[in-house]
Amino acid sequence: MASTAKLLLADLASSGVKQIPSNYIRPITDRPNLSDVQISDRSIPLIDLQGLNGPNHSLIIKQVAQACQNDGFFQVKNHGIPEEMINNILNIARKFFKLPESERLKNYSDDPTKTTRLSTSFNVKTEQVSSWRDFLRLHCYPLEDYIHEWPSNPPSFRKDVGEYCISVRGLVLRLLEAISESLGLEKDNIDKKLGKHGQHMAMNYYPPCPQPELTYGLPGHTDPNLITILLQDDVPGLQVLRNGKWIAVNPIPNTFIVNIGDQMQVLSNDRYKSVLHRAVVNCDKERISIPTFYCPSLDAIIGPPKELIDDDYPAVYRDFTYEEYYEKFWNRGLVKECCLDLFKASNNSA
Questions:
Q1: Average pLDDT over residues 106-131
Q2: How far, in Å, CA of 300 to CA of 153, rounded?
Q3: DSSP per residue over 116-149, as a string?
Q4: In the β-sheet with 245-248, what is the strand arrangement from edge to edge?
Q5: Quick one: residue 295, left, alpha or beta (phi over 0 = left, psi -120 to 50 = alpha)?
Q6: Is 297 strand, coil or helix?
Q7: Peptide bond into 100 cis (omega under 30)
Q8: Residue 167: which of 53, 77, 79 has the closest Cα?
Q9: What is the CA radius of gyration of the chain?
Q10: What pLDDT score does 334 carry?
Q11: Helix, strand, or coil here: 287?
């Protein structure tokens, strides 16, 4: 009985279970079907950011436009974040999830409104089926408002993760300018729509799973925020839906994966798409992924910009606050239907 009473998946998984508990088993119609997944080296575009503010500017803007329009996902290299910082942050995440259970549980909460919390699956209070992951979620902008809540173990956690957050935010702000420009807008257009801005991150831990074909690390979902910057270790797991097929996105060292979130789809008036993606697990290796979620502040009013609305392209969405959107997302759980449909502008032709 003791093993079933574990709050965290890591402690259940490390107890040597040979079969996954029934609450992790997906219905037959909603399983990963791993043999049907396409694997290719260049499954999503890889954009070299070298020279973004110099000779390659217009080429990179064009590549960003195409990736946001056609894929909703792209990878970036020469992004300005040092390899040493990347390796360090992955190591800190590994060390955190290897801490004794009692030490990790100091950070545990099942309340999605808490700004720093360790939890498991997605939303244990509302979901029907559990997902094969533990996660540490941190709010990180403005840093000084939150850093005191963060774990103090491993000892360098606050200092090193804080520096990483600042670096990733710098990358996000450069990408937001490029995305604004790629839409034909002033480069500060998106930045100005975000109120005071918000930034969260997660450290996801996916333990080895004895029956990976029966469950997900995370089921198919779109991201509710503006833009996500994902760092993953060298273990595959991320898959992206393209033309009705799941495509494996295999890790490339020292790159970040960038994906368009639901708010960017709104701020582009549907020109750019927030795409379904999921995490699968495997029976041999643990996997770490570290997404940074950049978002509007909760009071920011989001809607299509007037510059992208005309007779040919009417507003697809009504205006709403990010808080309204974010609450719906957490309460509905990870469902394949994007929350965006609930925020469509009413039209008379319906």
A1: 87
A2: 34
A3: EEEEESS-TTT-SS--S-EEEEEEEESHHHHGGG
A4: 38-39, 245-248, 238-242, 277-279, 218-221
A5: beta
A6: coil
A7: no
A8: 79
A9: 20
A10: 57
A11: strand
Do you find a cis peptide bond into 154, omega within 30 degrees of 0?
Answer: yes
- pLDDT, one tens digit per residue, over 126-168 is 678 999 999 999 999 999 999 999 999 999 999 999 999 999 9
Beta strand ranges found along 4-82 (DSSP E):
38-39, 46-48, 73-77
pLDDT number for residue 296: 98
The DSSP code sequence of 286-340 is -EEEEEEEEE--TT-EE---GGG-SSSS---B--EEHHHHHHHHHHH-S-SS-GG
**Predicted model pTM:** 0.94
Token pair 């992924």 in the structure block, residue: 289
> Phi-psi region for residue 180, left (φ > 0), alpha (ψ -120 to 50) or beta?
alpha
Q: Which tokens in the block code for residue 83?
A: 């390899």
Cβ-based neighbours of 53, under 8 Å, separated by 6 or more: none
pLDDT digits (tens, 9 = 90+) for 285-307: 999 999 999 999 999 999 999 99
